[in-house]
Amino acid sequence: MLMIEKAGLQTTVQDLGRMGFQKYGVIASGVMDPYAHRLANIFVGNEEDEPTIEITLIGPHITFLSDCLIALTGGDLSPSINGCPINMWRPVFASKGCKLTFGKALSGCRTYLAVAGGIAVPKVMGSRSTFLRAGIGGFDGRALQKGDLIPNGKVSGTISSFVSRLSKSTADASFTQVNWMLMGRDIPIYKTSVTVRITEGRQEYLFDKKSLDIFTFNEFKISPDSDRMGYRLKGPKLALKEQKELLSEAVSFGSVQVPPDGQPIILMADRQTTGGYPKIGQVATVDLTKVSQLKPGESIRFRKISLEEAQRELLEERRLMERLTRSISLKLRDGE
């Protein structure tokens, strides 16, 4: 059980999304950074789709009301337990009564907290993700607030044994961290200026040559009015060859739409189900983590790749995740 003592800026329960209901107008929602979310779960022996707590920029204060095995991944928001800094990207045992807090955002803007056993909130339409605008899913359909008691699920025998071994090594300390972590190349580096790979958008052909060149050669800034629904970009104006009315059609995580003002919008986890603005590009799935960890004022560039290259990169990421799952599972089984 976790108790929220301070809410933070926007702290929500999220999983990999609410799939299969967009045809009814229900958005997918889910985590902004799927890579960090998946790894947080793997570190504590959960399935990848177990819900985690997504923490944005200003973190909450959380007290553990029972012994917990946790992991923090994603952006570095200076986490600490009982005032002592802790490492990310590895399992951490926190004993009953420990208090997790966050400080300055050193890199990225979203941290993922996984708890062994998962976050035990009910499924709504097959998902535990919070859909804030509709007030469904997650914890009572809203961001976490002071005083909330968040239940965690039952852990497996393997994790119970691992936690038991870790708890014995805490000695007089209230928490302990394993002495292993991912290799550096497997931990994303969240930069303030990124180059993101894109594939051709369905309406790319509608844009004039100058705009296509601007889109792939110029830098855009993340606007302050960006959110989980979409990242609004500021930069040179993009224009169509001629104005044209389009029928609304399905959009996806990473679709880059261009409204009449010529300023692109990258659709994010809480995107609408359909859109009528022309799509100039589609962010490669493997690069969504780069976009999701950008803060307002930071910059982004686009580099076009083929659909085949984007698919190869995604398959390689899945193979990496499978290798990491196997190696981390062995660590959890055999102890530190």
Features:
alpha+beta; 6-stranded antiparallel sheet; elongated; single chain; 7-stranded mixed barrel; 2 domains; Cyclophilin; 21 strands; 336 residues
Brief account:
The protein is α+β, with helices and mostly antiparallel strands and 336 residues long.
- Give the overall shape, derived from the CA principal axes: elongated
Strand order of the largest sheet: 13-20-17-18-15-14-21
Tally of helical runs: 5
Class derived from helix and strand content: alpha+beta
| SSE order | EEHEEEEEEEEEHEEHEEEEEEEHEH
Q: Termini separation (Å)?
A: 25 Å
Overall mean pLDDT stands at: 93
Number of strands: 21
The largest pleated sheet is described as: 7 strands, mixed, barrel
Report Rg.
21 Å
Percent of sequence in beta strands: 25-35%
Q: What does this protein look like?
A:
- The chain has 336 residues and is α+β, with helices and mostly antiparallel strands.
- It is built from 5 helices and 21 strands.
- It has helices at 34-43, 157-168, 209-217, 288-292, 307-334, and strands at 2-6, 10-14, 52-56, 61-64, 68-76, 80-81, 84-85, 91-94, 99-101, 107-115, 149-150, 175-177, 193-200, 220-222, 230-234, 249-250, 255-257, 265-267, 274-275, 279-283, 299-304.
- It has a 7-stranded mixed barrel with strand order 13-20-17-18-15-14-21. A 6-stranded antiparallel β-sheet has the order 7-6-9-4-1-11, with no helix packed on it. A 6-stranded antiparallel β-sheet has the order 2-3-10-5-8-12.
